[in-house]
Specification:
The protein has 441 residues and is mainly β. Helix content is 0%, strand content 52%. The protein contains no helices and 36 strands. It is rod-shaped and about 130 Å long. Bound molecules: 2-acetamido-2-deoxy-beta-D-glucopyranose (8 copies). The site of one 2-acetamido-2-deoxy-beta-D-glucopyranose has 3 residues, from strand 30. The site of one 2-acetamido-2-deoxy-beta-D-glucopyranose has 2 residues, from loops.
């Protein structure tokens, strides 16, 4: 008798060991799933190309080459079924090992560290736990960009204050496939479960930034040179001073919507203030800002090192003022006049005359961007407070328009408010507006 030789056949994950006497490799398993979901049925076929006469059976289970198992249970996992080939003078066996898959039936997300009170950037790790599952599922995260993913079930990322309240979901999915050589999938088992967590962040101190005071000198803010940062600058000015912030350079990320690095501008502070804009590149963006609240806040968030930004800030003297009219002729001119005025500017002048008097206003020069209905750049003159009765709305060029349009106006009350707004494009010379107190008509 020749000594038995041991072979092992590997059909993807189905391990079949073959003992043979003569019929080398004559037996194979076909459509036998590598994993079977619990409570389902299994159909597995054992085949040979050997010429008859021969018998192929699953001793104790089937008199033919077809094995059929119903309602498999977890306890059946690991059970081995032997297929036997008998032919004249030879014998061969192949073993099918049943693997029973189940779940996942529940999922949970946990976070470490759990206490998210932070100074600056803090890396945190989320862990996804899929309950009651076999084999190991795959995990997918949504609501978060995982950075250094050590393993599928763990997600590490840097937490920013803006993440407060954000919902992060992990979905665990068990999909087990066996693949035929033709690369078509057959027989998959599938189970999914997901878990969700709400991030809870309290910022104690940002990574960088400063509390700054704007004055009439030009001052600058330059981006810090690292990625993974959260920086906050607050710029204030003395009461009645208009703050003006513009970007000189900004190239952080070329893809919208500025997910990996951005600079946000707020009118007021970053918690309660109004978001004026979020930018990651300068071109085409409306970067110059003038907050109405007396405080500008700049928040820089970065998970990626772009080439950075440089901002300029200063106050605009003569842009927000309370003036008094008397019998003399005084003049209002926007900052920059008679050179180009600044873009994205809002100036507000309040003029008060003695009780019983009116105010007469007369443009001696006027050249600002012209638009239909003066919707881009304009001067509004109100009787009384801003938002009161509109005495005049102006844009364009005084020399090119009918004289009537620019004839002097006189207020009814002893107060008038002049508002000048410019947009981001086509700044021009500006205007010169004379005002004087007159007897009420
Ligand atoms: C499994 O087979 C049994 C008997 O043939 C049948 O009644 C049952 O519906 C099958 N179950 C599934 C999940 O296919
Ligand atoms: C096949 O099985 C039948 C019945 O069990 C038996 O009579 C026959 O001899 C077997 N044939 C071979 C080739 O083993
Ligand atoms: C199922 O059986 C396989 C093969 O015997 C074994 O490796 C695995 O650990 C078993 N799984 C469970 C959950 O018992
Ligand atoms: C935050 O920074 C302050 C001052 O540097 C320090 O005393 C405090 O322990 C830090 N807190 C945390 C949570 O890191
Ligand atoms: C966030 O965490 C703080 C401190 O651990 C806790 O007091 C607060 O209730 C938490 N908020 C939410 C919405 O979970
Ligand atoms: C504005 O403030 C800066 C920084 O404090 C200072 O160096 C500069 O002299 C100030 N300029 C004026 C005009 O006050
Ligand atoms: C004129 O101005 C004074 C304050 O300067 C105010 O008290 C008064 O009501 C005003 N009178 C009119 C007629 O608007
Ligand atoms: C208004 O200004 C123009 C110059 O642009 C001047 O000719 C005119 O006399 C002024 N009108 C009044 C009422 O001051």
């Amino acid at each position: 008798m020749s000594s038995p030789v041991f072979y092992s056949l590997c059909i993807i994950t189905v391990i079949a060991s073959t003992f043979l006497v003569q019929a080398v490799g004559a037996l194979r398993l076909k459509k036998c799933p590598s994993y079977v979901m619990e409570k389902s049925n299994v159909s597995c076929t054992c085949l040979t190309k050997m010429k008859k006469p021969h018998n192929v059976t699953w001793p104790g289970h089937s008199q033919s080459g077809s094995l059929f198992l119903t309602n498999v249970q977890r306890s059946d996992n690991g059970t081995q079924y032997t297929c036997l080939l008998t032919a004249d003078g030879s014998k061969e066996e192949v073993v099918y090992t049943l693997r029973v898959a189940y779940g996942p039936y529940d999922g949970q997300v946990s976070i470490s560290p759990s206490h998210l009170v932070r100074n600056g950037t803090q890396p945190v790790t989320l862990t996804c736990t899929a309950e009651d599952t076999y084999p190991t599922p795959s995990y997918e995260w949504s609501g978060v960009s995982c950075e250094n993913q050590v393993s599928d079930d763990a997600c590490t990322f840097s937490l920013y204050p803006k993440d407060n309240g954000r919902e992060v979901t992990c979905t665990a999915e068990s999909v087990t496939l066996s693949r035929k050589p033709s690369y078509t999938f057959h027989n998959s088992v599938r189970g999914t479960a997901s878990g969700t967590i709400n991030l809870n962040v309290t910022l104690l101190r940002p990574d960088c930034g400063e509390d700054l005071v704007a004055n009439s000198s030009e001052q600058f803010i330059t981006s810090p040179g690292h990625s993974n940062q959260y920086c906050v600058w607050h710029i204030t000015a003395s009461p009645g001073q208009q703050i003006w912030v513009d970007s000189l350079e900004m190239e952080l990320e070329t893809r919208d919507p500025c997910n990996r690095a951005s600079v946000s501008f707020y009118d007021g502070d970053e918690k309660n203030g109004k978001l004026l804009g979020k930018f990651c590149k300068r071109l085409g963006n409306y970067v110059p800002i003038m907050p109405a609240s007396g405080m500008a806040t700049i928040v820089f968030v970065s998970t990626w090192g772009g080439s950075g930004f440089r901002l300029i800030y200063k106050t605009l003297p003569g842009c927000v003022e309370s003036l008094t009219a008397d019998s003399s002729i005084q003049t209002i001119e926007p900052p920059g006049y008679p050179e180009k005025y600044l873009t994205n500017m809002v100036c507000v002048w309040q003029i008060t005359a003695p009780a019983g008097k009116s105010i007469r206003l007369n443009f001696t020069d006027f050249q600002i961007e012209k638009s239909r209905s003066c919707k881009w750049d304009y001067v509004h003159i109100y009787d009384g407070e801003r938002g009161g009765q509109l005495l005049g709305e102006y844009c364009g060029n005084k020399d090119h328009q009918s004289k009537a349009k620019f004839k002097p106006v006189t207020s009814f009350m002893n107060k008038t408010t002049v508002v000048f707004k410019s947009d981001v494009l086509y700044p021009a010379r500006g205007f010169s507006l004379q005002y004087t107190a007159t007897d009420t008509v």
